[in-house]
């Protein structure tokens, strides 16, 4: 129906979920349910080098513990591997990449990039070299040569990210391409993600403009605050942040967790100019 809300939960099975993931899930779920929208569960496992079965299982256990339901997507780990793994959709991502005719191959290593540019932000050394794609030897990058309009202001994506990877040396699609293709294909209208993914949003908008993805370009994208550990570091799977499994196993119930996260939920909806859904007060 016109104006219907469609959103998604899109965890990556690269580590055990933490409190920040729970905040994102609760924001997305409560918004969609209050708008009588459709919620899709999508597990972003296209990067098969980092995905692990125990992390996939953790996603389902966490959602069950939080009392979060969804309308479309895998019902459990077995169903996920049988019908929903992105590893079976590689050719769909490859077809999208083929439409990005300005993309080029790059053989620069991480160490070379750091030595040349002083960071991992890639300045485009291989533009115009015409290198072939060689598995294990080159990655395919998107040249960034214009700003992206973000929140009504021009954002310098090149300064923030440089020419970013579309296809890795391992011959697998990169996150920016996969996430965009999946969001466009699912007709996503609302996206909720942490503020640390602001630059990723800009990269995906950049690609959407290149691919003329009207649905994604019309989607409303919100970035919520991050949660930090006692040392001031943001919670992240890559940093080994305390997983939600530890809270579950210690006997913490979902209502206690909601009490902990409720101030963050309320701040988000207020800052985003959205009416606070009544159902964030209870998961019963």
Give a quick rundown of the structure.
By secondary structure, the chain is of the alpha/beta class.
Could you describe the 3D structure shown?
- With 284 residues, this protein is of the alpha/beta class.
- It has a domain at 6-88 and 187-196 and 213-281: HUPs (Rossmann fold).
- The chain is built from 11 helices and 9 strands.
- It has a 3-stranded antiparallel sheet. Strands 1-2 form a two-stranded parallel sheet.
- Helix 1 links the parallel strand 1 (6-9) and strand 2.
- Helix 7 (175-186) crosses helix 8 (198-211).
How many beta-strand elements?
9
Q: Give the CA-based shape.
A: globular
Strand content: 5-15%
Helix percent reads: 40-55%
Q: Identify the strand order in the major beta sheet.
A: 3-4-7
Assign the CATH topology of the domain at 6-88 and 187-196 and 213-281: Rossmann fold
Write the CATH architecture name of the domain at 6-88 and 187-196 and 213-281: 3-Layer(aba) Sandwich
Low-confidence stretches: none
**Topology pattern, helix = H, strand = E:** EHEHHHEHEEEHEHEHHEHH
List its salient traits.
single chain; 284 residues; alpha/beta; Rossmann fold; 3-stranded antiparallel sheet; two-stranded parallel sheet; 11 helices; 9 strands
Per-chain topology:
Elements: E1 6-9, H1 19-34, E2 38-41, H2 53-66, H3 77-84, H4 90-99, E3 104-106, H5 110-117, E4 139-142, E5 148-150, E6 153-155, H6 157-161, E7 164-167, H7 175-186, E8 190-194, H8 198-211, H9 214-218, E9 220-224, H10 244-249, H11 254-271
Parallel strand pairs: 1-2, 8-9
Antiparallel strand pairs: 3-4, 4-7, 5-6
Helix pairs in contact: 7-8
């Amino acid at each position: 129906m016109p104006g219907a809300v469609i959103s998604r939960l899109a965890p990556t099975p690269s580590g055990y979920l933490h409190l920040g993931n729970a905040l994102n899930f609760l924001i997305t779920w409560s918004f969609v349910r209050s708008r009588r929208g459709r919620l899709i569960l999508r597990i972003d496992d296209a990067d098969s080098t980092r995905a692990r079965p125990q992390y996939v299982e953790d996603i389902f256990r966490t959602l069950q513990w939080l009392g979060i339901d969804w309308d479309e997507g895998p019902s459990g780990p077995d169903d996920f591997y049988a019908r929903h793994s992105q590893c079976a959709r590689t050719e769909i991502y490859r077809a999208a990449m083929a439409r990005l005719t300005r993309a080029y191959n790059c053989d620069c290593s991480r160490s070379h990039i750091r030595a040349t540019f002083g960071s991992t932000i890639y300045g485009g050394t291989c533009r115009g070299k015409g290198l072939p794609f060689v598995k294990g030897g080159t990655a395919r990058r998107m040249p960034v040569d214009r700003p992206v309009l973000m929140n009504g202001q021009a954002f310098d994506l090149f300064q923030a990210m440089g020419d970013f990877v579309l296809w890795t040396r391992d011959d697998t699609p990169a996150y920016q391409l996969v996430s965009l293709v999946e969001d466009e294909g699912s007709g996503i209208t609302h996206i909720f993600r942490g503020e640390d993914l602001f630059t990723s949003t800009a990269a995906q908008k950049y690609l959407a403009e290149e691919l003329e993805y009207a649905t994604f370009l019309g989607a409303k994208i919100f970035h919520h605050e991050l949660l930090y550990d006692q040392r001031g570091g943001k919670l992240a799977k890559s940093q080994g942040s305390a997983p939600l499994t530890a809270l579950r196993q210690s006997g913490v119930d979902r209502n206690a967790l909601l009490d902990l996260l409720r101030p963050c939920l309320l701040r988000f909806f207020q800052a985003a100019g959205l009416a606070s859904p009544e159902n964030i007060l209870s998961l019963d």
